TrEMBL record, chains A, B:
UniProt name for this protein: Acyl-coenzyme A oxidase
Cofactor(s) named in the record: FAD
GO biological process, one term: fatty acid beta-oxidation using acyl-CoA oxidase
Gene Ontology terms: cellular component: peroxisome
Source domain of life: Eukaryota
Residues in Acyl-coenzyme A oxidase N-terminal domain copies: 30-143
Residue span, Acyl-CoA oxidase C-terminal domain: 535-702
Amino acid sequence: MTDFTDNLKPRYDGAAILEAERSASVLGIDELSKHLLSRDDFLGRQEKVLKVLRKEKLFNKDQQLNLSRPERYHLGLARAKAIRRLVRREAWDHEDYKMAEYLNDEMSPFHLHMTMFVTTIREQGSPAQNKSWMPRILDYDIIGCYAQSELGHGSNVKGLETEARWDPVAQEFEIHSPHLTASKWWNGGMGRTATHAIVVAQLLLPKSSTAQPSTTDSENPSRSHTTSEYVPYGPQTFIVQIRDKKSHQPMQGIAVGDIGPKYGYASMDNGYMLFDRVRVPKSAMLSRYAEVSDETGALIRRGHPAVVYGSLTFVRGQIIMHARHVTPFSDMNWLVLARAVTVAVRYCAVRRQFQDRDGVAPTHSRPQDEVQVLDYPTVQIRILPLLAATFALHYTGEYMYNLYHQSRRTIEEGDFGPLAALHSASSGLKSLCTTIAADGIETCRRAMGGHGFGGGSGLVGLNADYLSKPTVEGDNWMITQQVAAYLIKKTTECVQNVASATQDPTEELLKDYLRGRAQHTPPSFLAADGSIDDDALVQIFRWRAAALAYAAYQARVEEKKPWTSLMIQLHNLSHAYSYHILVSTFRTALSSSSVTSLSNPTPSVLRTCFRLFALHTLSQSASSFLLTSSISASDLQVLDAKILEVMGELRPHAVKLVDAWAVPDWLLDSALGRYDGKVYEDLFERAHRKNPLNRTTFNVDWRSEEVVLGSGDGGRQLLAKL
Amino acid sequence: MTDFTDNLKPRYDGAAILEAERSASVLGIDELSKHLLSRDDFLGRQEKVLKVLRKEKLFNKDQQLNLSRPERYHLGLARAKAIRRLVRREAWDHEDYKMAEYLNDEMSPFHLHMTMFVTTIREQGSPAQNKSWMPRILDYDIIGCYAQSELGHGSNVKGLETEARWDPVAQEFEIHSPHLTASKWWNGGMGRTATHAIVVAQLLLPKSSTAQPSTTDSENPSRSHTTSEYVPYGPQTFIVQIRDKKSHQPMQGIAVGDIGPKYGYASMDNGYMLFDRVRVPKSAMLSRYAEVSDETGALIRRGHPAVVYGSLTFVRGQIIMHARHVTPFSDMNWLVLARAVTVAVRYCAVRRQFQDRDGVAPTHSRPQDEVQVLDYPTVQIRILPLLAATFALHYTGEYMYNLYHQSRRTIEEGDFGPLAALHSASSGLKSLCTTIAADGIETCRRAMGGHGFGGGSGLVGLNADYLSKPTVEGDNWMITQQVAAYLIKKTTECVQNVASATQDPTEELLKDYLRGRAQHTPPSFLAADGSIDDDALVQIFRWRAAALAYAAYQARVEEKKPWTSLMIQLHNLSHAYSYHILVSTFRTALSSSSVTSLSNPTPSVLRTCFRLFALHTLSQSASSFLLTSSISASDLQVLDAKILEVMGELRPHAVKLVDAWAVPDWLLDSALGRYDGKVYEDLFERAHRKNPLNRTTFNVDWRSEEVVLGSGDGGRQLLAKL
């Protein structure tokens, strides 16, 4: 179809604008990309997998926003299956497979099968259970999911209501849902896909059994499922077949289905499941660490006590879950944020609106041109600190990745020492970093004005999907309590032992504070020559974190205030502590040889990012820095002016800095964020050529019930769907 | 269909919990509802219209989230037509009709027809044009839209690219789109619905014409559409038929369609439109204020100069648009926010999670019960300040409504004096209040944890739709510049004339500051007896607004800094000024007889809301208050503790306070926010009975391309849609 619109060009040529932006900065982008994304050959793998996917029509993203939610699941399942076939056809390894999921960019109905389902069996199943299940799992002959959360309980695992009652005569467990709120809920892949589930249920043994109840449950003696004849032993994991292999219908006594539409995750079948006294064999209970004795019917626990009583498994599970959000495992929050920032920076460079009020000609422009909106400080203050944040999150991710792998080696040698610190850092960073990214996506969207609200932004799905992150796998407001508890414990130890030296960075932070607080004056982030003192910035963040930890210690340990009354303060402490990690780690990275060896001006541009991130954070939480005497009043007075100055330094490199994140256009799926700057051409193409709604003609006469012109069914098709 | 799930009950009875909440507070809810919602008999009208709508299957909201975007437009059009039929059948007046739109809760494809389309013709059309068009419009024989924004220009009306070139020989205008970016874009109802459009285009007259070019355009001499033979006269409005009445196909030379899916507004056909030298008669130009002369071919302007040169019309238009967001016209931001807060308060009261860490029994609970999450300060700090904000926004809305009607009378008598103040207040409040509401909806959602991400929250559509508000009808970051410009002008006047008395509240604010600043010490919001001093709170907000206005005056007028470099500062000034209006107006309302005459404890509970709103705002922007010496350092130290205290006072009334907003369950469409507290029953019903995805059985075997079990089409149906 051709028409008169074919010959029209936009008034300003976006391609020329981005070209000018790119040639005005001498940053070496290939080198910077490699520096940022070399782990596991990310860039090479991205290119290789992208080449395959973009040839497959099924992975075309054009019509995704026009599909209904049931269709989105259909498509999600079709793609999940197709990726399995591609894995075989292309001989992809596991990293390639993960890259395909990343580029496909939607939650796969198979996602839990190859993550929580397989991991739980591997870690908690006995050797015999592993031998029996693994081949079927790895061949996808069965599809698994992980059924922990319930309608009534998400965060509180001890509160789970599903019961697994041991019948010593039949040698079976009876899985049962005593209340409606016992329904499993939210579990990914369970709604329509899975044939099997790991079911987390409260183990109940008949009273005659001789083992002691678990310590965790003795704190909780009046659970409703405790009948006089049974004793609760806390949550255990069971592998249960939930659907018939052939008919794919639910097994007898099981009600299971999809919970319905959500904010995002349209392609994923998050499920519900209730059990009506479902019998499973003894072998269903994963028994690496605990098993019901054949002889006595008692619970036999084996292994290290920390493992046996579940707390270690729980903490390790949490660390792995949180690490996913803050390290280069799978959900790299900085790459997610980088997508939003890429779109915003490119579009705001191409977009021009209004001439300068004082008649000053804009950069790279003819005098009559309107101003690039990226040149407005009101746009910069929203986007550029987030651009800086992508690097802050990245360097901390790399740091945590290394910490995780070091600690894992130590732990596997039987030393559980590093666990608490790792748990605290990963929980705090999960909370802070997913909040920064989730809020950042929406901030970028709004900074793009009207077109930011359109589907051509490419952020509709990203935004909706990512909004789950601040809640899932540890609510961002809840898990900070664990960080604060750790810091209060550490402070208590340090207070009792201020003088002695330490290797632990958190103890060092706290002791520096305890030793220095009597005669403290806040350092200035301005050096004598007016330049920014990067180390002083780090000191300011360290001091705030330590001062808030000490205040929490005083309130809780010395003044014995109720925990609940301190919760907001503890949340703020956790964020302050996590911000200190982000700032310190970024500062350290700047001095590392991997940064200093980059060609000019990359190291100094990264330094500008560091400064903007730190100064902007200072400004956002200024009163918290002031109240802890971390920053001086005179520094605060010049803060906003310094931020403007630093943004001015970063601005010329903005387009190239987002280029460095190497997000392919195919993944961005954004008219506004196209690499080539053809924003308006693409927006128009989507509307004029690709919008299915424009293929229907409607009847707008209100006297008729018919909606489509000439359909003659009086809207009956539509009514039937309601 | 019955099954074993029918007999299951939730572990905690939500209905009993909300009942206990309601009986624990003695607030008189009916009285408070009437106090809040008496204008135009809101409550009676709501009941009347709701009764009709809920009987019509077409308005059932059950399946909305399961429809595709094209289906959502189909449904939106069917509903828009049905509402017209109901208006006739039920003899509804215009207020009833608006109530039906409010309860239907989606943007109607007819929305622009009865707002911008009809208003523009009424205000800018000549008597003859009105006579000719109005009957057809009011009968909906033609459906209109308003085509101002373009692909390349939204905020900047002067930058619009569509041209209307006068042909003196044919006595016709030629409407033409010279670039792709001239495409009309975003215009509601234009995509598939409208037959006619008001087209805003740059008027071009042949050079021989004798009238002077408009002053606005002389600032902008090199517009691309200025050819040597034509002179630009700035934007004018034209009424253009865009679709054939019978076939509903675009008229010759017009490319028009829907722009495709967006964040929200699925039911609305936001459109694009390009013109290929389309000829329209002379009568197409709306000619109340300007007309091309039959004799000379020159532009004749008539009426008051402010009207003639468009600025007045523009400003008035802006005021009306902004007032919609901040007064009881149509989009009452406090009722939108109240919906989110209603859902969050009720659900967080019903939801219990974790036992208290110190073993303290929760309120209204048995010792073994888990804590209601609304009792956690980390939940309160997110929801209760927003509950308080609904009242702040409401009282300011009422104040602005009265101010608007007073000023309108004055203006209609020919005195344009009040216009600037009204424009400034409504722009500033539009920016601040829609930001508070948009962010507030998401904050409420996140405060609800996992279930907040589900469709049962009832916030999916509300959130997506409302996210447009910070951008549309004046971007929230852009329109604040106008507020700041007004305040700088006012400050300049006041500085030159500090001593004289004034009746103008903004001048009073500024003069109080100018007189007092030499020997100012910030007042304490704590009275001598430790209670909160409400008037001191107002003073603190007044002082900050004035101090920032003065600082902006110094920077711009005295130091002559470039406007662009000040933009962030000016944005902050606008918000500080608007916050002062919210706080002052709320404080004044508390002393009004309409509040003091309410039965106890309502006046004091509203006072608690005022305090929470003010203190929480102080805490959120503490450094801005500190840097302007509006608040003392010692007050800042106790601020967080005071907020906790005030939240504790408000907590027992929270459920009843949201009840007072009287949002019907039918409108909320939320399992979590049901009036009766049956949260879990409703969530389960939606999943188990109402989810269409659960009626399909899928083929999960990855070796097969088929998606639906036994469909046998190898996913071809699905592929065809991609």
